[in-house]
Amino acid sequence: MNKDILNGFSLHTLKGIAIGLGAAVIAILVLSFISSIIIYNTSLMDSSLSAFAIVIIAIAAFGGGFLAARLNGSRGLITGLICSLFLFIILLLFRSSNGVSIPIQLLCCCLPGMAGGFLGIK
Questions:
Q1: Rounded average pLDDT per 10-residue block, the chain, 122 residues
Q2: Structural domain boundaries enclosing 112
Q3: Residue 58, φ and ψ in degrees, nearest 5
Q4: Does 1 reside within a domain?
Q5: How far apart (Å, rounded) are the C-alpha atoms in residues 87 and 8?
Q6: Would 70 be classed as within a structural domain?
């Protein structure tokens, strides 16, 4: 059942990427909710939303890449990169004007995703 597709990427690898991507999306939702509560209940300015968005994206991409590589067991950098690129595409589809430019958002997805993938290898 572990049939190779796309030069060594197996269904097991794709399953790990999908689980990591799902975890990253859930992390973004939870962290966004927590940050909205923090900003609402404190005297932080609304201008800090873009900083919160960058940190949330980086944490979620790191966690998704880490989980995807941990489940895959090999090719951590590429697994983390693929997971974070899919996360970036999802963020582009549901993009709102949060003040973060697209190249910055791409870097905030890819670099932590690759780092998480690197550290996620057993």
A1: 55 87 95 88 77 90 94 87 93 75 88 93 81
A2: 7-119
A3: -65, -45
A4: no
A5: 22
A6: yes
